[in-house]
C-alpha cells in the first residue's frame, strides 16, 4: 500500500519539500512553498498523524527564543530498490526514503535480453521482501527512456527497443520507474548530494560514455523521448568530437599506444608521473572542461558535479580542466565538484527515481 496515494498534489509537494530540505522548520517550509501558516498546518497535520512526517527535537529560534519543531520524513517507514545495469553486471541497492543504502547486491554476468535482466531483478526483490518489503523499483541504464518506460538506443547492452518498464512490473510485481542512468544519478545528487539545496544544477559524467544531466528551475530535464544529455557528438574547439577524446575506451587506446603495452583506466592514476600519460590526461581534462563550460554558457547552473568511473583521471589535472571551462564560461572553483563514484551510487540514483514516484503517485 502506498501511504502517499490519495494525497492531493499540494500535500505531496509539502512532503517532498520536507524530504529534500529536512529537518526543516514550518517557517522555512512556508517560505519555500509560498504557503500561509494556516494552510501549512492543515497540510502537515495529517502527514504527521499518519507517520509520514515526524517532528524532531525542538530548536530555540535565535530571534524570538521560542522553540521551533522541525519536520523530517519518516525515512524508515518505506524502502525501495534501485538498480543499474551495465554491460556485464547488475548493481542493486535497497534504500530508505532519504536515499540511505541499507542493503546491496551485485550480479556479475551479462544479460542478453531484457527479460533475463528482469528475472535477475525479480530474484533479488524476492530475497529482500522479508527484511525490507520494498514498495517500488527504480531501474536505470544507458538508453533513451520514454515516459512509459520504453527504452531505445541501448547500445551498451545491445537490446532492441523494448517496453522495459512493463516487463519489469509484470516480472517483479513492483511499481517500477525506468530512467536514463545519467538522469537518475543527477536526481539523486540534486536531492541528496552535491546539488542539494540549489535549483539549477548540472552533472557531467565520464566513463564508457559521456553524458550530461541537468536540473533547471528545480526540475530534472529529460528531453523529448528521454534523450537529453547525450553529448558524445559535442564538437570541441579543435573540431574533434567529445566521444573521440573522453570516453574510457579511447583513453585506454591512446595510453596503450603511447607506452606500447595494454593499459586500462585503472592503471592510469599510478602512471600520472609519466609525461606521455600526463599529456593525454590533460587533453581529456580540457575536453571535459569545454563540455562543462558549454553547459554553463547555456544553463548557468549554481553547481556542477563531474562524476563517473573516469572522473578519477581528472585528479591533478584541474588546471587543464579549468582552462577548458574558461574557454566558454567562468565557474568559481567552489561551485565545481569532482567525485569518482562506483556503480552502487548509480543504483542509488535509480532508487531516487523510485522514491520520487512513490511520494508523488499518479491518480
Question: What is the strand and helix layout of this fold?
Answer:
Elements: H1 9-21, H2 26-33, H3 37-49, E1 53-55, E2 59-60, E3 67-68, E4 71-73, E5 79-86, E6 89-96, E7 101-107, H4 114-132, E8 137-141, E9 144-145, E10 151-152, H5 164-172, E11 176-180, H6 181-192, E12 201-206, E13 210-216, E14 219-221, H7 243-246, H8 248-259, H9 275-299, E15 303-307, H10 318-326, E16 336-338, H11 343-359
Parallel strand pairs: 5-8, 8-11, 12-15, 15-16
Antiparallel strand pairs: 1-4, 2-3, 5-6, 6-7, 9-10, 12-13, 13-14
Helix pairs in contact: 1-3, 4-5, 6-11, 8-9, 9-10
Counted by DSSP, the helix tally is 11
Q: Average pLDDT value?
A: 94
Radius of gyration over alpha carbons?
22 Å
Overall domain count: 3
Structure description:
It is globular, with a radius of gyration of 22 Å. With 363 residues, the chain is α/β, with parallel strands linked by helices. The mean pLDDT is 94. It is built from eleven helices and 16 strands. Strands 7-6-5-8-11 form a five-stranded mixed sheet. Strands 14-13-12-15-16 form a five-stranded mixed sheet, with helices on both faces. The protein folds into three domains: 9-76, Arc Repressor Mutant, subunit A (Orthogonal Bundle), CATH 1.10.10.10; 78-186 and 344-359, 2-Layer Sandwich (Nucleotidyltransferase, domain 5), CATH 3.30.420.40; 196-338, Nucleotidyltransferase, domain 5, CATH 3.30.420.40. Helix 1 crosses helix 3 (37-49) and helix 8 packs antiparallel against helix 9 (275-299).
Amino acid at each position: 500500500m502506498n501511504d502517499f496515494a490519495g494525497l492531493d498534489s499540494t500535500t505531496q509537494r509539502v512532503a517532498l519539500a520536507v524530504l529534500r530540505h529536512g529537518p526543516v522548520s514550518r517557517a522555512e517550509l512556508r517560505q519555500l512553498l509560498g504557503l500561509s501558516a494556516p494552510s501549512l498546518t492543515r497540510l502537515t497535520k495529517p502527514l504527521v498523524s499518519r507517520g509520514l512526517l515526524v517532528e524532531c527535537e525542538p530548536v530555540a529560534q535565535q530571534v524570538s527564543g521560542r522553540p521551533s519543531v522541525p519536520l523530517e520524513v519518516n525515512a524508515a517507514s518505506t524502502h525501495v530498490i534501485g538498480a543499474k545495469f551495465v554491460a556485464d553486471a547488475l548493481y542493486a541497492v535497497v534504500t530508505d526514503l532519504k536515499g540511505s543504502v541499507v542493503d546491496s547486491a551485485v550480479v556479475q554476468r551479462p544479460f542478453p535480453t531484457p527479460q533475463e535482466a528482469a528475472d535477475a531483478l525479480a530474484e533479488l526483490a524476492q530475497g529482500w521482501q522479508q527484511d525490507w518489503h520494498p514498495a517500488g523499483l527504480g531501474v536505470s541504464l544507458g538508453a533513451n527512456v520514454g515516459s512509459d518506460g520504453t527504452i531505445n538506443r541501448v547500445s551498451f547492452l545491445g537490446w532492441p527497443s523494448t517496453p522495459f518498464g512493463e516487463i519489469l512490473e509484470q516480472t517483479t510485481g513492483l511499481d517500477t520507474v525506468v530512467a536514463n542512468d545519467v538522469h537518475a544519478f543527477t536526481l539523486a545528487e540534486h536531492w541528496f548530494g552535491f546539488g542539494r539545496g540549489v535549483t539549477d544544477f548540472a552533472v557531467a559524467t565520464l566513463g564508457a560514455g559521456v553524458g550530461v544531466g541537468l536540473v533547471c528551475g528545480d526540475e530534472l530535464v529529460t528531453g523529448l523521448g528521454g534523450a537529453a544529455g547525450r553529448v558524445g557528438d559535442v564538437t570541441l574547439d579543435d573540431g574533434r568530437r567529445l566521444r573521440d577524446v573522453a570516453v574510457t575506451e579511447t583513453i585506454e587506446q591512446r595510453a596503450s599506444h603511447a607506452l606500447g603495452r595494454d593499459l586500462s583506466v585503472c592503471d592510469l592514476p599510478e602512471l600520472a608521473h609519466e609525461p606521455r600519460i600526463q599529456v593525454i590526461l590533460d587533453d581529456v581534462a580540457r575536453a571535459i572542461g569545454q563540455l562543462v563550460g558549454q553547459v554553463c554558457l547555456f544553463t548557468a547552473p549554481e553547481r556542477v558535479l563531474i562524476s563517473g568511473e573516469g572522473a578519477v583521471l581528472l585528479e591533478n589535472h584541474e588546471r587543464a580542466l579549468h582552462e577548458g571551462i574558461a574557454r566558454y564560461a567562468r565557474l568559481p572553483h567552489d561551485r565545481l565538484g569532482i567525485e569518482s563514484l562506483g556503480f552502487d551510487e548509480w543504483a542509488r540514483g535509480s532508487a531516487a527515481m523510485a522514491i520520487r514516484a512513490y511520494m508523488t503517485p499518479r491518480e
